[in-house]
Each structure stands twice: as structure tokens, then as C-alpha cells.
Amino acid sequence: MKISVIGAGYVGLTTAACLAQIGHDVFCSESDLDKLNKLRNGIMPLFEPHLEKVIRLNRESGRLTFGSTEEAIDHGRAIFICVGTPPLTNGDADLSAIEGVARSIAKRATGYRLVIEKSTVPVQTGSQLRKHLSVHRRNGLEYDVASNPEFLREGSAVEDLLHPDRIVVGVDSSRAAELLREIYEPITQGNFACPVHPDCRKVKDPVLLMTDISSAELIKHASNSFLAMKISFINMVANLCEVVGADVTKVAEGMGLDPRIGPAFLNPGIGFGGFCFPKDVQAFIRIAEKSACDFSLLKEVEKINQRRIEHFIEKIRKELWVIRGKTLAVWGLAFKPNTDDVRFAPSIALIKALLDEGAFIRAYDPQAVEKTRTLLPNITYCADPYEAAEGTDAILIATEWDEFRQMNWERLRSSVERPLIVDGRNMLEVSALTRCGFHYLSVGRPAVAPLEAGPAGSRAYSGARTEGLTADLLAS
Ligand code: UGA
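Above: the input record for the complex with uridine-5'-diphosphate-glucuronic acid. Below: its predicted structure, written as C-alpha cells.
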């Protein structure tokens, strides 16, 4: 099918590339000319595993083309709107980009178009979209409107799009339902060449859930808000664990074994970030407020998340006594691993707060340095984690990149000023660190002192707690 995707951000670009990969003839437009030129010249404007390859293959085969919004409106029978919906200062989603695209479609398109909202939008955007298309149409546009929220995660976007758990489609006509069924048929039938798993026939059986448009819109906001709530919940449990000397990893494991709870999204840390959860929770609160529903539960979720950085800094402060004048390594800048996205990244809030307290920062991230430079021009960027750690009073882990698990701790021990690690993502194996003389603080677990600092042959823990530590440590 001829499909257009308007907006080449993380969602738009992945959607365009994957729809081409499953066999459609896709035209993707981008209004930022610099980004568009990059895409036309085969340069990736963002980092996302597998995406570069999928784009290259499909451009070569002629199934994926980049260009202007006008060309996209002319091309596709189905048009996916994937433009940004950033937060306004009052928490509402800014829908001006969607409005602009709807107006352009209405004025330019001739004949039938299925206009699909893919961007995360407040409930009832579909009816506004329909109204807008009708008011501004000039050239005999006939249309249906649909909502098809995206559930992909940055860092595994291609995999999530091609192997989803569910495809949610909100429609109010059988024509729209049929077109969307046809678009996704290669995925629901497992009938496409998978660029991620070369041998796979079908990794999962996705559920294609057809609903009305408002329900589909709500599913997206409710899902993200629920996941954010799970994270804030476990972060509060982590706080409690720190006070009573329990191990939040064990608590989360025990909770997650109950299939009604499930183990996912129970990793405590320095809070959720990225361009989705923080803005979607805010937007959902505003949607509820406007509908006179008191969703104060979500206000707490947001507050708990906002307090994570101060809580983390308090831990650092307790160890270092004074932060002013200290040099600190920050490992990880992206809001999560396997992406270069630093929008609303907890690392940025952390570094800003530490700079305000007079610290010097040496930062490293395998992908996100370029995107951080404009936000934080006055810190030292390093080529690798070893360089970042040189001469520092503490290594702070803000993002759980895999490479931090395989460090040479002996080498690091000899280059730091003070062997202290504050792990905001609970990602490291304790025994390797403590054997090399590091003092290790994490989230919701007892602090662990270096082996060499304790009585001969014994383990020493700051706070003298041994209960609930990882099996790794207990076995060491
Ligand atoms: C999220 C959702 O997971 C996707 O389903 C959704 O499509 C997407 O938002 C969106 O609305 O576009 P994403 O923001 O890419 O995806 O990343 P997540 O993996 O959900 O992580 C979000 C944040 O929560 C990260 O900062 C991560 O570090 C944090 N997190 C996640 C935790 O602190 N603990 C956890 O257990 C899980």
C-alpha cells in the first residue's frame, strides 16, 4: 500500500522504515530541512539499533523515500501523523504541529485519505482532527480518521514495532478498520523479512485490538502512566528498603513473581525520563483535570519522580561530606541505554544540580555526548569511562549501558582519587568492585564497603548490614 509518514522523529522514522520493511511503498516527510538532507544523504539524525540498516535496505529497494510534507500528502492513501507533541508550560500537550499537518492535508489532498494519529495525543484529538479536516478541505478530500498509538521503546524500537505485543487501532468506520488490518497484516501474520532476527518466522502473536478512537487514545496515555506509576512505586519501596536495611532487588523479585504484578518496570533508580513518560504523565493529569476527574494518584507519581535526583545527591553528599570543589565522573547521559536521546534525562537534572553545588563533572556516554553538549556546554566530555573516572572523588552511574558491566576495576581503582561508586541504576556486580577496593552505594540496597577496608578475611559493610544483599556478594 502507498503510505505516508509525516515527521521523522524516533517514532516516525521507525514507523516509516518498518512499514517499508514489511512491504509497503512508504514516503516519509520531515519539515526540519537539515534533518531531511541528512536522511536523503543516508546520514542518521539519531541513534537507534537496527534502524540505519532497515532504512538503507529499503531506500535501496525503492520502498522508502524522504521528502516534503506536500509530497507525502500526495503519496499515501494512508497518512500517519508522527509529529511532536511537546509539553506546554501548563502540562498540556502542544498540538500545534498536528493541527498544522491536518490543515495542510485538508487543503492539498484530493480523493480519499486515511489520516492516522500515531503521535501521543490527548483523548478526543481524533474528533478535533476530523472537524479540522472538514473545515479546511478544498480539493474534494474524502477521509477517515484513526488512532493507532505506538508502544515502541527507544533502544528497541525496530524490534518493538515489528514484534509488538499488541497493535491498537481506534476507528469509526469499517473502511478505516480494513485498511489498518491490511497495513499490519504482514506483522500479524508474521509474513515479512525480519532484519532483527534473520531466522525468525514469528517471534510473537500480536493481538490486533480494534476499538473506538477515544479508547485507543486513552490506552496510550493510560499505559504510559501506569508504567510510570510502577516505577515510582518501586522507587518509594527502595527508599523504605534503605531505611530498614532490606534489598529492593529481592523485594521486586518477590513481587514480580506474582503474575498479577509481573517483574517488568520494577527497577528502582534515579527516576524515569525521556520524551514520553514525564510529558505523558503530565498530559494525562491535565486531561483528567479538564474532565473534572481528580487523578491525584498521578500527581504523586510525578512528585516521587521529581524527588529522585535530590535523594540520589543526598546519598553522594553523605559520603563526600562537601560536594563543592569535588570532581565527579558521570557515566551515562542518555535517558536509558541504547539511545542517544537526552530529552528529560535524569542525568541532565543530576549534573545541573551538582554543578549548582559547585562540583566539576567529567562525563561519558557511548552515544549521547553530541546531544548533551548543547544542554551542558561547561562540563568535561571524555572519550571513555576510564578517562571520565581519572582523578575523581566518585563515579556516578546515571544510565545502565552494558559496557559499564565489563570494566577493569583494578585499572579504575588506580586512577580515581577516591574509590567510590554511586550506582543510580543498580547495575553492577558487587563482588568485583569490592575486591578491587571500591565502596559501592546503590539504590534501595545496603551500602557495601571494600573488602580491604574490613577486618581481615571478613566483609565490611557501611551500616553493618548483610541481610538481603545480592547472591553474588553473599557467595563471594
Ligand atoms: C516508553 C514506553 O515504554 C513505550 O511503550 C512507549 O511507546 C514510549 O514510552 C512512548 O510513549 O513513545 P521509552 O520512553 O522509550 O518508552 O522508554 P522506557 O523503556 O519505557 O523507559 C522510560 C524511563 O523509565 C527510562 O528513563 C528508564 O530508565 C525508566 N525506567 C524504566 C525505570 O526507571 N525503571 C524501570 O523499571 C523501567
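Notes for the reader.
The pocket of uridine-5'-diphosphate-glucuronic acid is lined by residues 120, 150-154, 224, 227, 231, 265-267, 269, 272-274, 276-277, 335-336 (CB under 6 Å).
The longest helix spans residues 213-244.
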